[in-house]
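To illustrate the input format used throughout this study, we show a single complete record. The first block contains the structure-token representation of the backbone; no residue identities are included at this stage. The design step must infer an amino acid for every position from geometry alone.
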């Protein structure tokens, strides 16, 4: 797993001439690692997860799904309960494995992250029920580890809420965003994740005709992003445009 982490750090610091070169590098690394480090299933899964995210960002959703499913297949290998497994790249520490749903597979936080990513792919594909079910599965795994950052289970709630917005069910989305707020409050998180939750809730309330609340929520999100990303950041500008649209500008 350490070598896979080094490869991902190398990838983050590399400059590519374009998406084709980036894709070729990722594919080559995944295939090479399959041969050289076959027993490092967690490391291989992390590389395929990165490949899936690359394809998802390009809206190549079939390829993204295939890469995420490869990562999941690699992770669904029984290991001894109580052993320590490195978690996803967004978590800088190790956690113990846990058995869920009464079967023989033992899942970890990084498995939940891959599920979360796959569910996002389902959402973009319009496979709403599969997305909702998979976000729920990821959340249950995250929730089984009390020491994980609350931003992880909160991301599942936020993402599930976005699916409901896609379905034009803002009341259901509001419930999800309130659950995300609660998790972020428990984790004392006040940065980017909180700003995005304010933005998501603003959309739900605006669609429910609660424009005044929605405007206040966009203002709260903008206030946080101003300090976290700066006003020139695309995410800040996107939320600002949303606020202006709500105001009828």
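Output of the design step:
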């Amino acid at each position: 797993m350490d070598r896979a982490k080094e490869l991902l750090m190398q990838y983050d610091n590399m400059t590519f001439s374009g998406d084709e070169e980036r894709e070729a590098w990722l594919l080559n690394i995944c295939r090479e690692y399959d041969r050289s480090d076959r027993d490092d299933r967690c490391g291989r899964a992390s590389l395929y997860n990165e490949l899936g995210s690359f394809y998802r960002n390009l809206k190549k959703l079939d390829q993204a799904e295939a890469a995420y499913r490869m990562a999941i297949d690699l992770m669904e290998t029984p290991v001894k309960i109580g052993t320590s497994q490195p978690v996803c790249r967004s978590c800088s520490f190790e956690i113990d494995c846990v058995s869920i749903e009464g079967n023989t597979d033992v899942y970890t936080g990084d498995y939940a992250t891959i599920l979360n990513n796959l569910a996002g792919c389902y959402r973009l594909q319009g496979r709403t029920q599969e997305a909702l079910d998979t976000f729920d599965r990821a959340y249950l795994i995250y929730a089984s580890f009390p020491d994980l950052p609350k931003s992880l289970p909160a991301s599942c709630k936020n993402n599930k809420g976005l699916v409901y917005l896609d379905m034009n069910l803002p009341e259901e989305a509001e419930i999800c965003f309130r659950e995300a707020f609660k998790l972020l409050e428990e984790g004392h998180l006040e940065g980017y994740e909180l700003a995005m939750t304010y933005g998501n809730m603003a959309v739900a309330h605006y669609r429910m005709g609660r424009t005044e609340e929605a405007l206040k929520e966009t203002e709260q999100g903008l206030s946080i992003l101003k300090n976290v990303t700066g006003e020139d950041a695309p995410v800040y500008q996107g939320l600002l445009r949303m606020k202006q649209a709500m105001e009828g500008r």
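Structural context for interpreting the output: The longest helix spans residues 19-36. Strands lie at 84-86, 94-96, 98-99, 106-107.
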